[in-house]
Every structure is written in C-alpha cells, then in structure tokens.
Amino acid sequence: MLQKLEVKWTKYFVNDIECERDAIYQTILNRELYAGRIILSKKYHFESYEQNRVERTEWGYLEYKTTTSNHSENLSAQLSMITTHLLNTMEPTSETYKELIHKMIHAVDMFFEAENNHAQYSQQFRHALRDFLSFLNKYTVQSDASYNDFFSKLSIEYAIFLFDMLAFGISEGNDSNQRSLPSLEFDFSGLKVNWDEKVDNDQKAQFLTEYLSILLQQTDVFLSLWQKSDAFDDVAKHKIKNLFEEFKQVIRGFQNQKKWLDTSLPTVLKNMYSFFNQSQAKSEIDKQDIPSFSRNCTINSSYSTL
C-alpha cells in the first residue's frame, strides 16, 4: 500500500517570532523590538513522503515491511537592521517608522523571489534594497557633509552587490551548493585609518582612497574564486563574470567621483569662506554709511544687506 504525504508552507518571522505579513509592524510594536536589532525572515519549506507498506503472513504471524522515501526543499531570505539609534529621530508609532518597516518587508520579499529566480527578479530586488537602505540612511547617517554622503551611497551599492550575488548563488547554483558558495568576505583590515563621520575631510579622503582600492582588488580575487567553483555551470559562470564586471564599473565610478570631490570640495569651501568674509565686510561698511534716523531704519537696512 502506497501512502503520500506533503508538508508545504511559506512563513514570515521577525526575531524568530512567526507572524503574518500584515502583522509584522504591529508585532514589532507589541514586542518592543524597536529597542534593538530587527531580524526579518521569509522562509519556505517543502517535504514530501512516500511510504510503501507490505503485509504478509508467515507461519501464522503478520510481518510489516515499510520503505520510506522523502524529499525536502528549503529557502530563506533574511535582512536585519539595528534600530536603537532611530529612536533619536522618530517614534516607533510614527508613519515614518511604519514606512521604513514596509520598505524592509518589500526588500525581503524581493530577496526571496530573487533567490528563487534571479534572472527575473534581480533588478526588482536591487531597487527594493536600495530604496530601503537609502531611506534608513536618511535618518541614521550624518549626510550633511559631502564625504559622509559619498560613503553612505558607496556602502549601499556594496551591500546591494553582496546580497544580489548571494541570491544569484542560491538561484543559479547546483542544488547542493547552498552551504558551499564561494566567499565574498572582503577584508579591510589593511586600512590605515578607520571611518569616522566627525573627523576632518583629509582623513575621510584618505580612508576612501584606501577603501575603494581594496574593494577593487579583492573583487578580482573573488571573481576568480566564483568562476572556479564547482557550484556553477559554464552558463552561470559567464553571468558571474558580467555581475562582477558591473560592480567593478560601479567602484571605478565612485573613484572618479571621489577625485572630483577631492578637487572641487576645497575650492567650493574656499569660495564660500571668501564670499562670507566679503559679505561680512560689506555689511559693516553699509552699517557705517547708514544714518541712524530710527531703530526701524537700521534694522530694515541690515536685513536687506544680508
């Protein structure tokens, strides 16, 4: 007698708490998860069993012989963010915070789809992840300074590349490759200085020069590792080369932007300083030339000069 049994589900988890998609935001509020790290996962699980049971009698006894075969599939997409510092700029109950969570949910959805079908969903996933990270950085990064904004955008593109390559590996690799994907752990231990939003522009410029150089060099190393991996066929390896070359172009684009920033920023700051000093000097001269007929006259004249 042949028996078949299947178990199949797709579920969302926030910090390992199972919940419906529409209840994720409310779960974060109810459990006060906004006070630390939020880990959002979308998981798929499938199992199928086939049991073949044979009954026979021998010398008056019943003998049961059961053979079982099973098949299982698992897929998981996960993103996380530390949200403690967000409490300084927004309330968890605000519409802004709610929008951030919804962008995170959409990014996880697209990550999940890209893992299942990278060719069809890669661009949608990249767009969703960029939208989520840009929105997050808007409220967490001091982007009022040019180099801070530059590094924020670079970090986003770097993260998009890493997550997209992970989705590619799961989607395009052999069935047994999920635990044996080649490394993508960039090593920045050789940096002479660390990133700090509060240091002067010269230190930031030095950091970014070294960072971009290491990023470009190690991208070539990882490209070689991925193309030598047994997890991919020749068609997939050709796609891998294109994806890595695309990221190298992104890095070179940032290198060119930085050169322009290094050259133009000091000039801009110098011009701003000169303009400010000239304006202050002109203001003082104007004030000296204006007869003080009344308090209102002096105030109005000063206002128009500024």
List keywords for this structure.
306 residues; 56% helix; disordered C terminus; 4 strands; alpha+beta; flat; 3 domains; 7 helices; four-stranded antiparallel β-sheet
What does this entry look like structurally?
With 306 residues, this protein is of the alpha+beta class. It has helices at residues 24-30, 95-116, 118-138, 146-172, 201-228, 234-289, 295-305; strands spanning 2-14, 17-19, 37-58, 61-82. The protein folds into three domains: 1-57 and 67-101, no CATH class; 146-264, no CATH class; 267-305.
Helix run count = 7
User: What proportion strand?
Assistant: 15-25%
* Count of spatially separate domains: 3
Rg over CA atoms, rounded to whole Å, is 29 Å
Helical residue percent?
55-70%
Strand arrangement, major sheet: 2-1-3-4
Main beta sheet: strand number and arrangement? 4 strands, antiparallel
Overall number of strands: 4
CA-to-CA gap between the ends? 93 Å
The parts where pLDDT drops under 50 for at least 5 residues are 267-285, 287-306
Q: Determine the mean pLDDT.
A: 83
What string, H for helix and E for strand, traces the elements in order? EEHEEHHHHHH
- What is the global morphology? flat
